[in-house]
Structure formats: structure tokens, C-alpha cells
Write a structure and sequence with these properties.
The structure holds three protein chains of three kinds. By secondary structure, chain A is of the alpha+beta class. Helices cover about 25% and strands about 15% of the residues of chain A. Chain A has helices at about 20-25, 80-95, 110-115, 155-160, 195-200, 220-235; strands at about 5-10, 10-15, 50-55, 60, 75, 135, 140-145, 165-170, 175-180, 205-210. In chain A, a hairpin with a 6-residue loop joins strand 3 (about 50-55) and strand 4 (about 60). The chains are: A alpha+beta, B alpha/beta, C alpha/beta. The interface of A and B includes residues 46, 48, 88 and 172 of A. Chain A: Keywords: 2Fe-2S, 4Fe-4S, Homeobox, Iron, Iron-sulfur, Membrane, Metal-binding, NAD, Translocase.
Chain lengths: ~240, ~575, ~180
């Protein structure tokens, strides 16, 4: 693959054609926060945390989808970006009712970690306290909308990896909600295979295993790249 | 139909129209219908029937004639004489006008609009040339106005490249608000790879107070079809879609009829005008989401997916409908295309100011004397629109601001009234040209309240995909509500500014990125009004009720209340 | 050297943050040379004193009494610190924000088995609930935050130590997570 050279945070860095800015940055030990992004899933660009400044671009660009190009000049941690990221996570914390202390995923939560990492010690916006339901109709799993950040990892993995497309979104704006099978209780979904991929990829305690109590829900994500790698090999005719 | 037949038909219909002693054009645009235009038409029809429907008297129900607040409108055409326009006609007045004309008696004139009325004389009508002059459901009348002649010219005399070049030379830019050079976009799609290409006309007009596109689709549907067909030839597409918002049933129905009529006449479909070019147009109806006016969301909606924007690039010009190169233009942009070829790109380019060429249609509304739909040359000073065409503010109120660009635009203050209205100048003022909504506001409008209104619209219409737009708009709305109800602190004002800037810089699509504009522009030009709300708990315009207390004052009040209770030995 | 005048206060919370404070154990004795605890649930003082150097406040602002005390504290303290998640986010205390106060009181006290009759007396004696539970920083200026439910003794010590050294309060990444 042809190599290209670009500047990230004043350092000249070489990258391969086709890599995203996020991949290049991570390869070089530059940590850009992400939430909706997950290696192996199609990029969505919804959380906006991975925005970086690109010289010549009028507005920051999402590094998860922007391809590295020769001569690009990129800044990943300007004061403005750092502040914007804080505000974005604060917005997420205010939007739904996360209440870490009573969450199944307390201390294992990507949103919680992200907030601490970004130095958020309080939220400057009003907590919206939308009263949202919980769907515990499925035998093994449950969904608590109050903890959902609408990253849509569940929707994407169910569609693209499991092939079931059980999950989708209804409504719009801040009333958007994840729904199973055209908005039925998850327990009555006929498309869901109970594979649990969505549960494992959910960054917060929105999707969880029943029976887990506060802080007990730990998630295991390595399966995703294993599956995708085996599929890739199989498609090439190799032995998985 | 071939080109010769087209020209012959145009000649025949024109001759027949010119042979009429009297042509009565009754505006049947939505506002005039609401004001009673149908009764006027019925009365005139009855009268004509009583006269035996003479061939030299013609009654036409037209699309929008313009000054909507003056409806029902009646335009009278007599060969060799200046045309006359009556406002606020009633069935009785219309019949008496007809009778007086027939007897060549003096016509009652109290409702006659003056011949030199600036509302008409200051306009330059290209896109709206036929609006209000023809029956929108009558193909022949469109053809008599030179309709489909531009298409014939392009198909027979020009290569697709030449057609693209003409649009480039015209200097036309996107009329949906973005202002991207149309010709450049055409060339991009033309060069796009792939065996299939598509054209999409964006008729998902949704800005509060804007109805240019609806009026154009309802008043002159064939013009849009012709523009799309020309684009189809120029970029090499065989299929076009018009995406009409669901709230515009009349527009959709007229476009459907127009497509059918044009196909029957050989002006669309296989082998258009006996050329080797085939082109189909279909209608797609939106389901009421403002965000579907955003091009990638619109494409998703056409393909039957959730109407949600996606990250660009790739732009639709590279990968649009089903991954094929797709040209998306606003219906008004397509409405300009036939004019570019009929008057020539140079003549088109001669109109306008700076990098903004041609004309722009505006829906002029708000506290202005003459509400209505107008088409003006780019670069016209805002003052001329408001005070000459618009006739100034109603009830003699003082001008405070003009809002352009709807929820994505901003407010222009009185001191900037002499600004030429074009893409660059409006942007420099923190507003945008937008699709053409122009709301005039007087001293009675509170700018914080106005900003809050637009923010409520945006939070409702956000698709929910990206965080800043989904949640940021809600928090901005809450901050504005606090300012309006008197409970905001100075820190809320700071947070408001920070949040607006963040939402503007980080949102995924244009809806979110532009959503803070009404707030930022009012903060820029009317900051004192915000300050008065926050520091003095006073709404200078007298709109906001200020019935809440900020928490620190609430606490003070409470302490006093508690102290009083204690003295009385009550409670505590 | 005069000792740092410290107060603690307990608004709408479970007192867990104060328990965690006590969990400082022996370290409390070590810092007692430098710190004088003059007000709070752990000491016997009725009136919030003037001239506080630092006040740690546990709990969210849930009723008018909380609001009154908080504003008094703000006036009488140089530094005001939100102590624990309830003070910072509203946490569990704010879960009642899903409901209106009236619905809530009716559901809890006046409906169902064993319900209490409505009484004017109770309404006069008990402090009136605010329409919404609020974090402290939405009511007054807050100078620093100690997140956690409850915050570990280590976090509390880290904050007190930096205060004693006259430094700005900064917690490390692992010490500032909610929950």
C-alpha cells in the first residue's frame, strides 16, 4: 500500500493510503476519545468526540471516517477540541438518567471512564430527567433506555454481524429510542437470536444481562474482531 | 411531439390568446383560495355561461400572482391595453368588472392596484414568469409561454457538455440556501463514474414562513419538469425524482398531472421531442421530517430508509441514490434552468451582484404591509424589499429586524437595511440567504423569544443521530426559556454562547450546524436585549412574562418569608 | 499557625459521604492538628458559623430548607465543595425528578395501604420540597467537586491535603469518576 505523510500535532507521521485519521493517530500513540466508534463496525460519526482540526477545513472533521491524505495538517487536542469533547460528554450525561452509583455497569462503563478521562467533575447543563421505560421482557437480557447514549452499536452489530436487524431507532431528536422489531417488547421479538452481541458491545449499562446487580456487568468485546477476521479468511478461501 | 410541432402549438395557442377581447386571470394560489377565490371563479364562470361562453372571453384560474395578503386577485388582460390587477375581489366586484369591460363602461376602481405599484414594478420575474399568468394544469398554456422550447434547444442544438457550460456561465448557484455553483455540480455529476445517474429535485421546503417552492410547484409545475429534463440530458441521467414534502398535496398532485401530460405529449418519457434522449420523472412524498431537506437524509428517504443524514464525503455527486452519482438541486434552482436557456446565460449572468447572479424568490411575510411572494434581482438592498416592495411596516411600526434563512438563518438589524441581499453579504451579517423565507419584525418582537421559537423548531426536527444537535438544541432551548421567563443568570448567558458555538462547530449535518444561527445572530445584533432579560429581568419588547425568579433571588425571597414566619411564631 | 476552619453539611443525601469521611480513620487524627471541624453532622453546633475556610456539602438541594442552608453556607464560606455524587449530579436524590412533587407525595404518603391522611400540620412542619432536585452548582457558585458515591477516603484526603498546602483542588483521573 502506498505510504503517505501527514502532520499530526506538529509531528510528521507516515500512514498507509486508506487509513482513517483515527487509525493513524492510534497507531502513533495519540489517544483520541471515541464512543460510537468500534473497530469492526461501520463508522457512524454520531458522537462527535473524535473530531479533529484539519488545516483548511472550515469546521472540525470526524477522524473516524476522514481518510488520511498526503500533506494533511491535523490537530487532535487543541483547547477548543478538548472543551468541545467535555461539553459533548456533559450533554450525554445530562440527556438521560445515568446515575452511575446504581448502575449494573458501574466502574466498567465507557461513558463513566470517558467523563473521568476528559476531566468532567460536574455537568454544566440541566439534567433532562426524561422518564423512559425499561424493557425486561427478554429472558436473558434487558434494556434500560435511561442509560442509552444512542451510539447505535447494537443496531449496527445486529444488522451487519449477526444479520438479524432486530434493533432500529424510532422517533427523532432527543426522543429517539432503540426499538426491537418495529417497536415491540424485546421479549416478543421473533428476529432476535439471543446472541448477546448487542449487550456485549453496549458501552453503558443500557443493555445488560439479567441477574447482574450494581457494578457486576462486565463486557467482553474481543469476539467481534475474531468473528470478522474468520469471515474475512473464509471469504478468501482460506481455512478460518 | 417534435420541435416543429412544439413551436406550432405555441404559435396556435398564443394566437388564440391574443384574439381574446378579454382574459380574466383569477389567482387560485392557496392564500387567494383561502380568501374566497373559488367563489370569484364560479361567479365569473356563471356569468360567462349566461353570455353563451363567447370564444373571445377567457377565464383562467392561475397559480400565485404574488401579493398574497391582497387576495383574491384578479388580473384583466386586454389586447393593446395595459393590464389591470384588482385586489380583494368579491364575486360581485368581479362580475361588475366583467360587465363594465364588455360595455366599455368605466370600471369600478377602488380595488384596482395602481399600475406603478412598486410591489410589481420592482420585481424581476424569471422563475415566476409564468406564475399567476397560466393555468398550472394546462400544458398548452405553458407551451404558449415558450415552455419546453429551452429543452428542445438543448436536446437538438447542444451537447451535454455545452449545456453544463451554459449553466456555469450563467453563474447560477443553489437556491436551496447552500449557494453551491450549480454548473459546477452538474459537471461533477456528469464526470461521475457509473452506468446510472439520477437527478433529485428537492421540494422538501420546511422553513417556518417560507412557501416559495410550494408556490412554484403549484403555479408552474412544467417549468420544474423542464429544468430537470435539461439537467438529465446534461449530466446523462434517465431518471429523476421530485421529493415533495407530504404537507404539499396540491403541489404533488399538480406535478403528477404535469408529468402525465408531458409524457403524453412526448416531452418526457421515451425519446423526448423525437430525440434519442429518454427521461422519466417520478414523485416521492416526504413524511414530515424537516431534516429530509438535507440532501443525504433526503436520499435515504427516497431509498426507503430512515431519513437521517450521513457523513459527507462521499457527496451525492459521487455516491448518491443506490451508490450512483446523483444531482440534487432545489426545485427553484431547476425553475431557473429554462430561463437560462431562453434568455441566454450571458443575459442571466447580467442580473445580480458580485458572485450572486440571477434572481431570488422570497416569501415576504411578517409585519410588513404587502405580504407575498416576490422575485427580485440578487443584490437588491434589503431596504428596497421591505419598504418599497413590502410597503413598509404595518401600522406604522418601526422596523426592528428581518429574519432570513428560517431556523438556519439569522436576524438582520435596522442599521444593516442597506445591505445588498446576496449570498456573501447575508453571510457576513451572520445570516444566510437560505431558501427564501423573509420575515419582517417590528418593535413588538422580542429577539430572545424569536431565537427561542426557532430553537424549539430545531430540537423538534433534529434527527437524533449526532449528540450536539440532538441534545445541544434541547439545552440551548432550556437556557433561552430561562432567559425568557426571568430565571436566568449571567452564567447561563455564557453557557448559552459556548454551547451555541460548539453545536455549530461539531454537528454532523447542516441542520445542527446552522441551528444556533438564530441565537448567535440575535446575540450579535441585539445583545442588549438579552442583557436586559438577564440583569434587569425586563423584556424590552414586552413579550416575555418573566414570571420566574432566578434561584438566588428565590432563596432571598424565601429567607424573607421564613424570617416573617418566625416573627409570627408560625411554622419552623 | 491557625487551623483550617472546616464545616460539613448534609443536604438531600444518605449520609454515606459523611461515613466515608469517618472512614479516614486514623488519618483524621493526623489532620486534626491542621483542621478544626466546627460545624456539621459530626459536631454539635446549631447555627452555621461565620468565617468558614472550607465547607464540604453532601447531598443535593431537595427542599427549601436545603436551599436556605446552602445560600447561608455560600455567604459564610471561602470555599464551597460539592461532596459526593448527590451534590454534583443529583444522583439518587434526583430520581424523583421523574415525577411532580404532588404526584410523588400522594403516591408515597397518601395512597395505598397504611396511607397517612393529608394534614396542614405536617405541611407546616416539614420543609417544602423544591419542584426539582438540583445539584449544588445550579444554585450557588461551587469551587471544587469530589465525585463518588460515596467518594473514597483517599479522594477526600487528597482534596484536604491540597487545601492544606494551599493548592488548587485537582483529582487524578482515577479519583474523579462518578459512581
Amino acid at each position: 500500500m502506498p505510504a503517505i505523510t501527514l502532520t499530526i500535532n506538529n509531528d510528521l507521521i507516515s500512514a498507509r493510503q486508506g487509513q482513517t485519521l483515527l487509525e493513524v493517530a492510534r497507531e502513533h500513540g495519540i489517544e483520541i476519545p471515541t464512543l460510537c466508534h468500534l473497530d469492526g463496525l461501520e463508522a457512524m460519526g454520531g458522537c462527535r468526540l473524535c473530531l479533529v482540526e484539519l488545516q483548511g477545513a472550515p469546521r472540525p472533521v470526524p477522524s473516524c471516517v476522514t481518510k488520511a491524505a498526503e500533506g494533511m495538517v491535523v490537530t487532535t487536542h487543541s483547547d477548543k477540541l478538548v472543551e468541545y469533547r467535555k461539553m459533548l460528554v456533559e450533554l450525554l450525561l445530562a440527556e438521560r438518567t445515568h446515575t452511575c452509583s446504581i448502575c449494573v455497569q458501574n466502574n466498567n462503563c465507557e461513558l463513566q471512564t470517558l467523563a473521568a478521562k476528559l476531566g468532567i467533575d460536574h455537568v454544566r447543563f440541566d439534567y433532562l430527567h426524561q422518564q423512559l421505560p425499561m424493557d425486561a421482557s427478554r429472558e436473558r437480557f434487558a434494556l434500560d433506555h435511561n442509560r442509552c447514549v444512542l451510539c447505535l452499536r447494537c443496531v449496527r452489530v445486529c444488522d451487519a454481524v449477526e444479520g438479524a436487524h432486530t434493533w432500529d431507532v424510532r422517533g427523532r431528536g432527543s426522543t429517539s429510542r432503540i426499538v426491537a422489531d418495529l417497536d415491540r417488547p424485546w421479549g416478543t421479538s421473533t428476529s432476535c437470536t439471543d446472541c448477546g452481541k448487542c449487550v456485549q458491545l453496549c458501552p453503558t449499562g443500557a443493555l445488560f444481562k439479567k441477574g447482574a446487580t450494581v457494578g457486576e456487568m462486565k463486557k467482553e468485546r474481543s469476539f467481534l474482531n475474531r468473528i470478522l477476521e474468520r469471515r474475512r479468511l473464509a471469504a478468501q478461501g482460506g481455512t478460518p | 411531439m417534435n420541435r416543429v410541432e412544439l413551436a406550432e402549438l405555441a404559435e396556435t395557442v398564443t394566437a388564440q390568446q391574443q384574439s381574446c377581447r378579454l382574459r380574466l386571470l383569477v389567482c387560485c394560489g392557496t392564500p387567494c383560495v383561502a380568501a374566497g377565490a373559488e367563489a370569484v371563479v364560479a361567479a365569473l364562470r356563471e356569468k360567462l355561461a349566461a353570455l353563451g361562453n363567447p370564444a373571445d372571453l377567457e377565464l383562467v384560474g392561475t397559480g400565485c400572482q404574488g401579493p398574497c395578503s391582497r387576495g383574491p386577485l384578479l388580473t384583466v388582460l386586454r389586447p393593446g391595453q395595459p393590464e389591470q390587477v384588482w385586489q380583494k375581489t368579491t364575486p360581485e366586484l368581479a362580475v361588475s368588472i366583467l360587465e363594465a369591460e364588455l360595455q366599455q363602461a368605466p370600471v369600478p376602481d377602488e380595488n384596482l392596484l395602481p399600475a406603478d405599484w412598486p410591489f410589481f414594478t420592482r420585481q424581476t420575474r424569471l422563475v415566476l414568469a409564468n406564475s399567476g399568468r397560466i393555468d398550472p394544469e394546462n400544458l398548452e398554456q405553458y407551451i404558449a409561454c415558450g415552455g419546453y422550447e429551452s429543452l428542445a434547444q438543448v436536446l437538438h442544438d447542444m451537447t451535454p457538455d455545452q449545456a453544463c457550460d451554459s449553466v456555469v456561465q450563467s453563474g447560477l448557484r443553489g437556491r436551496g440556501g447552500g449557494g453551491y455553483p450549480t454548473g459546477l455540480k452538474w459537471q461533477l455529476v456528469r464526470k461521475g463514474s457509473g452506468s446510472r445517474k439520477f437527478i433529485v429535485a428537492n421540494g422538501d421546503e420546511g422553513d417556518p414562513g417560507a412557501y416559495m417552492d410550494r408556490s412554484l410547484m403549484e403555479s408552474d409545475p412544467h417549468r420544474i419538469l423542464e429544468g430537470i429534463a435539461i439537467a438529465g440530458y446534461a449530466i446523462g441521467a434517465e431518471q429523476g425524482y421530485i421529493y415533495v414534502r407530504g404537507e404539499y398535496p396540491v403541489a404533488a398532485q399538480r406535478l403528477r398531472k404535469a408529468i402525465k401530460d408531458a409524457e403524453r405529449a412526448g416531452l418526457l418519457g421515451s425519446r423526448v421531442l423525437d430525440s434519442s434522449f429518454s427521461f422519466r420523472i417520478d414523485i416521492r412524498i416526504g413524511a414530515g421530517a424537516f431534516v429530509c431537506g438535507e440532501e443525504t437524509a433526503l436520499l435515504a428517504s427516497i431509498m426507503g430508509r430512515r431519513g437521517q443524514p450521513r457523513i459527507r464525503p462521499p457527496y451525492p455527486a459521487e455516491a448518491g441514490l443506490w451508490g450512483c452519482p446523483t444531482l440534487i438541486n432545489n426545485v427553484e434552482t431547476f425553475g431557473n434552468i429554462p430561463s437560462i436557456f431562453s434568455i441566454g446565460p450571458q443575459a442571466f449572468n447580467a442580473i445580480g451582484n458580485g458572485k450572486s447572479r440571477g434572481t431570488k424568490v422570497f416569501a415576504l411575510c411578517g409585519e410588513v404591509v404587502n405580504n407575498g411572494l416576490i422575485e427580485v434581482p440578487m443584490g437588491i438592498p434589503l431596504r428596497e424589499i421591505v419598504f418599497e416592495i413590502g410597503g413598509g411596516l404595518a401600522n406604522g411600526a418601526a422596523f426592528k429586524a428581518a429574519q432570513t434563512g428560517g431556523p438556519s438563518g439569522g436576524c438582520i438589524p435596522a442599521e444593516k437595511l442597506d445591505t445588498p441581499v446576496d449570498y456573501e453579504n447575508l453571510q457576513a451579517l451572520g445570516s444566510i440567504m437560505g431558501s427564501g423565507g423573509l420575515i419582517v419584525m417590528g418593535e413588538q418582537s422580542c429577539m430572545v423569544d424569536v431565537a427561542r421559537f426557532f430553537m424549539e423548531f430545531c430540537l423538534d426536527e433534529s434527527c437524533g443521530k449526532c449528540v450536539p444537535c440532538r441534545t445541544g438544541t434541547v439545552e440551548i432551548y432550556r437556557l433561552l426559556s430561562r432567559i425568557c421567563n426571568g430565571s436566568a443568570s449571567q452564567r447561563d448567558l455564557q453557557t448559552l454562547e459556548q454551547l451555541c458555538q460548539m453545536v455549530k462547530d461539531t454537528s454532523l449535518c447542516g441542520l445542527g450546524a446552522a441551528a444556533p444561527n438564530p441565537v448567535l445572530s440575535t446575540l450579535r445584533w441585539f445583545r442588549a436585549e438579552y442583557e436586559a432579560h438577564v440583569s434587569q429581568r425586563r423584556c424590552p419588547a414586552g413579550v416575555c412574562t418573566m414570571d420566574q425568579l432566578p434561584l438566588h433571588l428565590l432563596g432571598e425571597q424565601l429567607l424573607q418569608r421564613i424570617a416573617a414566619l418566625r416573627c409570627d411564631g408560625e411554622g419552623y | 499557625m491557625s487551623r483550617l476552619r472546616l464545616a460539613t453539611a448534609w443536604l438531600g443525601g444518605c449520609s454515606g459521604c459523611h461515613m466515608s469521611f469517618l472512614d479516614l480513620g486514623e488519618q483524621l487524627i493526623e489532620i486534626s492538628d491542621a483542621i478544626e471541624l466546627v460545624y456539621g453532622p459530626l459536631v454539635d453546633a446549631k447555627e452555621f458559623p461565620e468565617g468558614m475556610d472550607v465547607t464540604l456539602i453532601e447531598g443535593a438541594v431537595a427542599n427549601f430548607e436545603n436551599l436556605e442552608l446552602l445560600q447561608q453556607i455560600r455567604k459564610r464560606s471561602k470555599l464551597l465543595i460539592s461532596f459526593g455524587d448527590c451534590a454534583i449530579t443529583g444522583n439518587v436524590t434526583s430520581l424523583r425528578n421523574f415525577f411532580s412533587v404532588d404526584d410523588l407525595l400522594t403516591a408515597v404518603y397518601h395512597a395505598g395501604p397504611g396511607s397517612a391522611p393529608r394534614s396542614d400540620e405536617a405541611d407546616q412542619v416539614l420543609p417544602e420540597l423544591l419542584p426539582r432536585v438540583l445539584p449544588l452548582h445550579q444554585v450557588v457558585e461551587v469551587d471544587a467537586y469530589i465525585p463518588g458515591c460515596p467518594p473514597d477516603p483517599e479522594r477526600i484526603l487528597a482534596v484536604l491535603s491540597s487545601l492544606l498546602k494551599g493548592e488548587a483542588v485537582t483529582l487524578s483521573e482515577v479519583q474523579r469518576s462518578f459512581g
